[in-house]
Amino acid sequence: QWTREMAGEIAAAEGITLTDQHYAILDFLRERHARGETLTIRSVGNSGIVDIKGFYGLFPGAPMKKAAKVAGIPKPASCV
């Protein structure tokens, strides 16, 4: 059972302090995952929430992998 509080703790362990923009991305990813859609960095960049460069800034290193972990969803197949 994923909660926003849980997301904050997972993010803190990754060295990330969540902002409203982080939560908007997490909600986007969880919604897309629930619909069975493929999650990619490009889809986040086209979401209107943040561009790809901004996504890397919010979740440095491995943005899709880290964002999925914080969102409580499985790592997308596109992640290596």
Class from helix and strand fractions: mainly alpha
Number of helices: 5
Helix content: 55-70%
- Largest sheet at a glance? none
Kindly provide the radius of gyration, computed on alpha-carbon positions and rounded to a whole number of angstroms: 11 Å
Anisotropy-based shape: globular
Low-confidence stretches: none
Per DSSP E runs of 2 or more residues, the count of β-strands stands at 0
Instruction: Provide the succession of SSEs.
Output: HHHHH
Mean pLDDT: 93
Terminal CA distance: 26 Å
Sheet-strand content, in percent, reads: under 5%
How would you characterize this protein structure?
With 80 residues, this protein is an all-alpha fold. It has helices spanning 4-13, 20-34, 41-45, 52-58, 63-71. The chain is globular, with a radius of gyration of 11 Å. The N and C termini lie far apart (26 Å).
Summary tags:
mainly alpha, globular
Write the layout of secondary structure elements.
Blueprint: H1 4-13, H2 20-34, H3 41-45, H4 52-58, H5 63-71
Helix pairs in contact: 1-5, 2-5
Q: Could you provide a short overview of the structure?
A:
This protein is mostly helical and 80 residues long. 57% of the residues lie in helices and 0% in strands.
